[in-house]
Write a structure and sequence with these properties.
- It is a single chain.
- 33% of the residues lie in helices and 17% in strands.
- It contains 5 helices and 5 strands; from the N terminus they run ββαβββαααα.
- Strand 1 and strand 2 form a beta hairpin.
- Helix 2 packs across helix 5, helix 3 packs antiparallel against helix 4 and helix 4 packs antiparallel against helix 5.
- The longest helix has 15 residues.
- It binds FE2/S2 (inorganic) cluster (2 copies).
- The site of one FE2/S2 (inorganic) cluster has 11 residues, from loops.
């Protein structure tokens, strides 16, 4: 069984860890780092529940190995909320538009939308809605999630308030 020493920045803090070569990133984040907001659904890249941000990009953590984030900056949903408890704009939009019910899919959706809105500072409705097509929600019927994505786009697209 091969073990590897890795270093990463997780939610703003530097960490070192020893991981098995076969350990997935989602298992590492949940079991070793206590980030239980990383939800595991399908475990084969389809549902989007396990999405986290690695070096600015939204990734499916069930499809990555922990060793692959050596030297990377990783953000989970635990790292989005401000130290004062203030919700991230994506979280606020989902709350405002009733875009969640049981919440199982929610962290993954939040991370995908956060990665897109943080990447450019400008977001477009089409790109946000297209990104949402990669997330499965068994509860909401998607309309609240769709409204939240549109609210985010409306607040960041050029020439819009
Ligand atoms: S658990 Fe990773 S995409 Fe479903
Ligand atoms: S809110 Fe329950 S799966 Fe999306």
């Amino acid at each position: 069984m091969s073990e590897h020493r890795i270093e990463l920045t997780l939610n703003g803090d530097r960490h070192q860890a020893t991981v098995e070569g076969r350990k997935t990133l989602c298992d590492f984040l949940r079991a070793d780092m206590g980030c239980t907001g990383v939800h595991i659904g399908c475990e084969h890249g389809v549902c989007g529940a396990c999405t986290v941000i690695v070096d600015g990009l939204a990734v499916r953590s069930c499809l990555m190995l922990a060793v692959q984030v050596d030297g990377c900056e990783v953000t989970t949903v635990e790292g989005l909320t401000g130290s004062d408890g203030a919700l991230h704009p994506v979280q606020q939009a989902l709350r405002d538009e009733h875009g969640l019910q049981c919440g199982f899919c929610t962290p993954g959706i939040v991370m995908t939308l956060a990665a897109l809105t943080q990447a450019s500072g400008q977001t477009y409705a089409d790109s946000l809605l297209e990104a949402m097509s990669g997330h499965v929600c068994r509860c909401t019927g998607y309309q609240g999630i769709r409204r939240a994505a549109l609210e985010l786009a409306a607040s960041t697209e050029p020439n819009k308030a």
